[in-house]
Design brief:
Enzyme class: transferase
EC number: 2.2.1.2
Shape: globular
Pfam families: TAL_FSA
Largest sheet: 8 strands, parallel, barrel
CATH superfamily: Aldolase class I
Protein name: Probable transaldolase
Number of helices: 11
Main location: cytoplasm
Oligomer: single chain
Order of helices and strands: EHEHHEHEHEHEHHEHEHH
Bound molecules: erythose-4-phosphate
CATH topology: TIM Barrel
Number of strands: 8
CATH architecture: Alpha-Beta Barrel
Strand content: 15-25%
Distance between the termini: 38 Å
Length: about 220
């Protein structure tokens, strides 16, 4: 499963990129606001740090303006992936961009039927928001299972990008279902390494090592 960092924080992206764990980045207007940076400038910087897809979201609601925004955004770098909302205008924009060879991430997906539409519109990625789905009394992971089943039934090539990931269990469940990608905040990605027995094991080994009186260097 590919890991995308869900952030526009350059320091976090650089740090995670050094681990070799990051296959791409997702941003949205809220994350750009949080970064305090100019949208175009920060997107360009992110595209220079990671080789994989970097999602940059349009903010227009109509197809014509979405296309103009997308045209500006895709000129930033070859690895820009245009993010469009799951609306009819968004899907129309998805089809036009896909036919033109541009990667598209269809975002704000909350139903399997919406995911079906995105695949039919040729989306590169579909982004179901599991955390927000859970928050509203639905089962986010059931949504991922349903989309996996439908995409496999028809051999759609659209990749399932599990978004709005809040904790390690979301990551584990997404991997077990066979999602193609998950995007999570840096804190969640770093947290995946933690295990109390790992910490305890290191502590025990170091204590015994000190008792040997030896040094490797
Ligand atoms: C990813 O593309 C989404 O923008 C993001 O995962 C949304 O997450 P949130 O629900 O935590 O804002």
């Amino acid at each position: 499963m590919k890991f995308f960092a869900d952030t526009a924080d350059i320091a976090d992206i650089r740090d995670l990129a050094e681990t070799g764990l990051i296959d791409g980045v997702t941003t949205n207007p809220s994350l750009i606001h949080k970064s305090g940076r100019d949208f175009i400038e920060v997107t360009k910087e992110i595209c220079g740090i990671v080789d994989g897809p970097v999602s940059a979201e349009v903010v227009a609601l109509d197809h014509e303006t979405m296309m103009k925004e997308a045209d500006k955004l895709r000129k930033i770098a070859d690895n820009v992936c245009i993010k469009v909302p799951l609306t009819l205008d968004g899907l129309k924009t998805c089809r036009a961009l896909t036919d033109d060879g541009t990667m598209v991430n269809v975002t704000l997906c909350f139903s399997a039927n919406q995911a079906l539409l995105a695949a039919k519109a040729g989306a590169t990625f579909i982004s179901p928001f599991v955390g927000r789905h859970d928050d509203n009394g639905f089962d986010g992971m059931q949504l991922i299972e349903d989309i996996r089943l439908i995409y496999d039934n028809y051999a759609f090539e659209t990749e399932i990008l599990v978004a709005s990931v809040r904790h390690a269990t979301h990551v584990l469940q997404a991997a077990k279902i066979g999602a193609d990608v998950m995007t999570a905040p840096p804190k969640v990605i770093r947290g995946l390494v933690n295990h109390v027995l790992t910490d305890k094991g290191i502590e025990g080994f170091l204590k015994d090592w000190q008792s040997t009186g030896q040094s490797i260097l």
